[in-house]
Structure formats: structure tokens, C-alpha cells
Design brief:
alpha/beta, TIM Barrel, two-stranded antiparallel sheet, 5-methyltetrahydropteroyltriglutamate--homocysteine S-methyltransferase
């Protein structure tokens, strides 16, 4: 049996928690049917909102029952983890493309966004979405998840944008200001735990060479972008966006490699960007994917240079229902603790269960078994 030196950290620690989760859950069939009925004009937007409220309340109750300390709305109101938020920003337009993105042979819906005016945050639905989550969270910590500022890199670039933003620097400067407003609005609504979800770092991973993966087609090269320059721009934008974060608010980032119908979009170790993400990002915690060989080893964690930075190890896969051997997971936590003290480590699934409304290929029972697995292993490690 793996022996891990026990940490003195308490289970009621500040977020992120020793047993945590990325946030999205499989959409109930009732939600899927309601969204179709709304699209067909059979029910109103308010009808859909009420149905979503009822299903979110059930979801929050279940999260509490399986032992989580943080609860989310499961992103049940969203079709995509990022586009639903981004398209509601001032100056952004939702668009249809000719074809979707490819994830190991799986095609997504052909949806995207483009910038058509000066960006701003005003009357955004995420505030009311958070308020409802807050109202049903009770004594548990309500965590809101939104796409990272960097996610606006994945957009169609049209002539309208060039009129308002002649340079990437000008665009991302305004993005930072938009996120400052977002964070303030959510904080004023009661949010104390915010997660930024970000797939852009996969652009820089060293093994991006497979032609069937969405991030392997040379996006940076096609746009004439220098990887070092863009990675520094992303980090600068994120740090500027959160610079005014209140002391009692926790902001974490999930660095994702893609998650669509149990497939992925990126592979490679964190080496290529480890100095930036572990040493330069001023977030309070990082949710990292370490569920299989695609993520490489824990060695890049030696770049963690802050005792207050929590590292959430995504060692439990959300892509498939089979449960991992708990002793192997404990052994991997022990290995990670060679680079980062155990009291700075946490455990979670590597990603959400439904980054898009299609969801991963597992059942709801298997989903909850995964979450219980995280909680039970964490309780054993951090006694």
C-alpha cells in the first residue's frame, strides 16, 4: 500500500478543495428536451429558465450528497463551455461556420464567434446565473465557471474587427478590462470562487503534430503568430484581468486539452509553457490534466514558486466510466508531492463531464461514482 506522509491541512480549507471538480456535468434529458422545445418555439425563454433552475437545484443537492465542498450549476444552461459566455459580451456576434472542429474524428457543431465592435461587459446573463446558484448552494461554496480571457483567441477574424482592433495587443487590452468588470459583477453578486477554463495553452504543447486533432493544424503559424509572444500576451492578459481581485475571492484556472464526447484535442507535457503557467500566472490555483500519458510527468511542477498556489491534480478521468485503482492514484499523488508539498495539492477529475451539451460517453451513475472516488481518495490522503 502506498504510504503518503499526512498533511496537516484541514478538509475545510479555502478553495480549491482537496476533493474538487472542474464543474460541468452531464445534461439531464429534461434539459436537452427543453432546449429543443425552446428552439422550436414551443416554450418561452422564461419556461426554459425555470426548468433549468429545477434541474440545477437537483444537481447541487447531488453534489452535496457525494461529499463535495464546492458546487456548480454544472453548466446546464450552456451548449458550449465558452461560446455561450463569450457571445453575450458586448461587441461579439455568434456565427455559423461551414464545418465544426475535429476531435479524434468527432466533429463538433459548426459554431464560433467573431468580434464586431468594441468589447464590453454589460447586462450579461452570467450574473443572474450565479445568483441562482448562490441561492441554492446553502453553506457550500458556490463556484462559477467561465472561459478564460485567452479563449477569445479562438474566433473568426473579420473586417469588422480590424476597424476596432488593428492589433492583438489592443484587442487583449480590452479583453482584460471586460474581465475586470465580469469579476467585479460576480463578486458583488456574492461569488467568492471563480474558475477560468482555458484550452489555449494546448497550442504550445510539444507533441501537437497529429493532423486529426483540432489544435494540431498550425493555428499559430496560420495566423503568423510567434508562440513565445502569444503565450506572454495570454499570461499578461490573464494577470491584468485579475489584478483587482478582492482578497477573499479565489480565482483558479483549468488548463484543458479539449473534451468532446470523451475525445481530446491536445497532447504533450507541460514543459513548453511550465515556466509561464507555474511561475508567472497570478491565479490562486491550477486545475491540471494528468489522467493519462498525454500529459507527461510531474517534473514541470518544479517551476511552482509560490507556497500559496494550489495545484489540483486531474488524475481521475471524466472521459470513461471505469474507476481508477485508488492505490495507483495515491502513488501518483505521492510522486507529485516530490515537486510540490502535499498541503498545496488537491485532487479532481481531469476535466468536466460535459464541456459541451453532448457530454462524455458515460452514464450519470458512472459520473457520480467518479466524484465519490475523488472524495474518498482525498479523504484517505489528507486525513
Amino acid at each position: 500500500m502506498t504510504q503518503i506522509k499526512q498533511s496537516n491541512a484541514k478538509t475545510d480549507q479555502k478553495a480549491p478543495f482537496q476533493a474538487d471538480h472542474v464543474g460541468s456535468f452531464l445534461r439531464p434529458e429534461r434539459i436537452k428536451q427543453a432546449r429543443l422545445r425552446k428552439a422550436n418555439g414551443d416554450i418561452t425563454a422564461n419556461d426554459l429558465w425555470e426548468i433549468e433552475n429545477e434541474e440545477i437545484a437537483k444537481l447541487v443537492k447531488k453534489q452535496k450528497e457525494v461529499g463535495l465542498q464546492s458546487v456548480t450549476d454544472g453548466e446546464l444552461r450552456r451548449a458550449w463551455f465558452h461560446l455561450d459566455f463569450i457571445q453575450e459580451l458586448v461587441g461579439v456576434k455568434f456565427i455559423e461556420l461551414d464545418t465544426g472542429l475535429t476531435f479524434n474524428g468527432e466533429k463538433t457543431k459548426a459554431h464560433s464567434v467573431k468580434v464586431v465592435g468594441k468589447l464590453d461587459f454589460d447586462n450579461h446573463p452570467v450574473v443572474e446565473e450565479y445568483k441562482y446558484l448562490h441561492s441554492v448552494a446553502g453553506s457550500h461554496t458556490a463556484k462559477m465557471t467561465i472561459p478564460s480571457p485567452s479563449m477569445l483567441y479562438f474566433r473568426e477574424i473579420g473586417e469588422e474587427e480590424k476597424e476596432f482592433y488593428p492589433s492583438k495587443e489592443a484587442l487583449f487590452s480590452d479583453i482584460a478590462e471586460v474581465y475586470k468588470k465580469t469579476i467585479k459583477a460576480l463578486y458583488d453578486a456574492g461569488c467568492r470562487y471563480l474558475q477560468l477554463d482555458d484550452t489555449t495553452w494546448s497550442l504550445f504543447l510539444e507533441q501537437e503534430s497529429r493532423s486529426d486533432l483540432v489544435l494540431s493544424g498550425g493555428i499559430l503559424k496560420a495566423r503568423g503568430d510567434d508562440p513565445k509572444e502569444i503565450s506572454e500576451l495570454f499570461a499578461k492578459t490573464i494577470n491584468e484581468a485579475i489584478v483587482d481581485k478582492p482578497e477573499d475571492m479565489t480565482i483558479t484556472m483549468h488548463i484543458c486539452r479539449g473534451n468532446y464526447k470523451s475525445t481530446y484535442a491536445g497532447s504533450g507535457s507541460y514543459d513548453a509553457v511550465s515556466k509561464i503557467i507555474f511561475g508567472d500566472l497570478n491565479v490562486d490555483g491550477l486545475f491540471l490534466e494528468f489522467d493519462d500519458e498525454r500529459s507527461g510527468g510531474f517534473e514541470p511542477l518544479h517551476h511552482v514558486n509560490r507556497p500559496d498556489l494550489k495545484i489540483v491534480l486531474g488524475l481521475i478521468t471524466s472521459k470513461f466510466g471505469e474507476l481508477e485503482d485508488p492505490e495507483q492514484i495515491k502513488s501518483r499523488i505521492e510522486e507529485a508531492a516530490k515537486y510540490v508539498p502535499l498541503e498545496q495539492l488537491c485532487l479532481s477529475p481531469q476535466c468536466g463531464f460535459a464541456s459541451t451539451e453532448e457530454g462524455n460517453i458515460l452514464t450519470e451513475d458512472e459520473q457520480w461514482a467518479k466524484i465519490r472516488h475523488v472524495v474518498e481518495i482525498a479523504e484517505s490522503v489528507w486525513k
